[in-house]
């Protein structure tokens, strides 16, 4: 059964369209609105379809407490032993920046939307007229929050890092119960950076069948290899964190794409999508010329009438036009009817 497209901004999402590329800014603005706007310009220049923010403050996503439960582990790859409150203070996008960021994105032809992390952020984003919402992986089990985003009637992109199939199903059912079936469910590994071998992309077709929705990939691996592979397995959306330069720092820069890589992501995922084609065997239109250069039996030496056919004067060569190579055993030892020049296709009328 063909599912209807989900449209985000002006971009249709579905298997009949190139994968939608979402550039996740996260905290790579590094506390600078000018840098945030430059990231939007870069995303547009590199061919992304959308730019995404995260809408929270340290106080809406956690509380200012310093106990082990509110710190990352000492061996965390990127943010060892960081207090959650301090990390979110550093990484958050100030809410007063959203309007200029969204406005610039619209001017450049990008869809701009966000992950909401509490009811106040949904209310705020609704006032800005966002075209879609994203459920972050850590929020997928917060069903009241999922319900609140779904109830806006906007397309809902659900990330599934860490989630069991039961938890994913609960989030999808919650969205549908709120009257929203404009769903895209993203495979995700919530590790920063994520080892490619933990991506388990073979799960995507299973996920698609389980939730009966379009699927995609929120990818935290380095590079674009996993994203390209995901398209071959049915991904209709690819989300990647982006930065102007990893050397400049930024909380997520270590696993974010630079401009050249983002350009490659757009072009190579579209190439992967085009390569899927349809189930087909036999020559394509593009192979018409190649058919002429299949092998066939040809006379390879000038011969006179009455000479026998041997391996010295008849061989399988390119191009086509003569008998099939398998016919040599049948014609060997028989004689030529007439003088025949080198390069003549061997046909039955010559024997």
What does this structure look like?
The protein is α/β, with parallel strands linked by helices. The protein folds into two domains: 8-56 and 92-276, Aldolase class I (TIM Barrel); 285-350, Type Iii Antifreeze Protein Isoform Hplc 12. Helices cover 32% and strands 16% of the residues. It contains twelve helices and twelve strands. The strands form three sheets. It has an eight-stranded parallel beta barrel with strand order 3-4-5-6-7-8-9-10, surrounded by eight helices. Strand 6, helix 6 and strand 7 form a beta-alpha-beta unit. 39% of the residues are buried. InterPro entries: AFP_Neu5c_C_sf, Aldolase_TIM, PseI-like, PseI/NeuA/B-like_N, Pseudaminic_synth_PseI, SAF, SAF_AFP_Neu5Ac, SAF_PseI/NeuA/NeuB.
